[in-house]
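User: Please predict the structure of the protein below. I'd like the answer in structure-token form so I can feed it into my own downstream comparison script.

Assistant: Understood. Taking the following sequence of 276 residues as input:
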Amino acid sequence: MTTPFFQANSNITKPYSLMDLDDTLFQTQRKIDAWNVPTAEPEYLVCATVNKQGEPLSFMSQRQAIFFNWLLNSTDLIVVTARDRSEIQRVKLPFSSWQVLTHGAIILMADGALLSDWQQQMHKALAPMQEKLHQLTDLINSPSNNPFDGLVLTPHTDGFCHGTSNNDDANLTVYLAIKHAQKDHQVLADLAKQLPTLIPDFDAHFYVHVNANNLAILPHAVHKRHAVKFLLDNHLDKKRPSFGFGDSLADLPFLQLLDWYGMPNHGQLHEQCPAH
């Protein structure tokens, strides 16, 4: 058998691009300034997200907007984000394919409907974790158990179907998010070290992700990698190539499932790469 040489073909097959959002495709003005993002002068900025009051919050630079437009038109763009179903509504970008949300606990199909087989799988994994998640919430919120001031804890919940009826949805806590009111990142780093002492066998049930002013306590079943692997194995065309980008260490496990991956030249993942 003779292996043929490559021949150009004008019939384009779109690759899958699996993209993290915040700090990968857009960022707040504070981070634009901190990272000195190029082509981010006010006249070039594009609003990408709004806050709960509907005010502009995160922005794309001119280069980021060009890159996103290319992704949108040249690839099958799949969102992979920590944002939940409420938070993704504040992203004002036109997504039209799969969406992996809430650190991987939720998968939406192109029409916006929940992927039921994944939803049932997540219900089975999360239901036994509810008591421990509620216990952690109470412990962290208790002043007597919490030596750290300024913590803002938000449980992220969603409905998970555990049967065949649409009325079988159960509202479950997926993970706990903690921010520091004064954006003291060291407080969150110190808290992350203390968390395993709060309940027995913490590490057996949970992992902790810290990135700047965001700390997440997640059950092991909740991970972007798990959801992306489920899509790759069961729903995406195995003949089509895939690539992705992400900015945080939490993105790396899902990125490593793809054919190619990369990162922006700023953020947590970039900072782990030594400059030469």
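That's the full token string. The first helix runs from residue 29 to 35.
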